[in-house]
């Protein structure tokens, strides 16, 4: 009896996983079809108005990420946020070093 329940539970889990995969695939397919339809409408409108059909382009500047990280490093340096003259030094205590006898 336990073997039957074990096999049945495995079958149910497999069916659920396959169903979830199919739903995921169908949703991705719908998104792609909607984007293709939008691009087709855009291209048809461009042809109708006599404008050139331009593709959707995602411009990537690899140097922008480097510049952002490089400038962020300056922000985290000690004292970079405020000038030295405006620092509050009232709570600084001078300490004399004592040597052990």
Structural descriptors:
101 residues, flat
Task: Describe the fold and architecture.
- This is Flagellar biosynthesis protein FlhB.
- Residues 77-101 are annotated as: Disordered.
- It comes from Rhodoferax ferrireducens.
- Keywords: Cell projection, Cilium, Flagellum, Membrane, Transmembrane, Transmembrane helix.
- The protein has one domain (2-75).
- The chain is 61% helix and 0% strand.
- The protein has helices at 2-49, 62-75.
- The chain is flat and about 85 Å long.
Helix run count: 2
The low-confidence runs, each spanning 5 or more residues with pLDDT under 50, are: none
> Which structural class do the helices and strands define?
mainly alpha
Radius of gyration: 33 Å
Distance between the termini: 83 Å
The biggest sheet, with number of strands, parallel, antiparallel or mixed sense and barrel status, is:
none
Kindly report the oligomeric state of this protein: single chain
Which word captures the global form?
A: flat
Please trace the helix and strand order, writing H or E for each element.
HH
Topology:
Blueprint: H1 2-49, H2 62-75
Summarize, please.
The protein has 101 residues and is mainly alpha-helical.
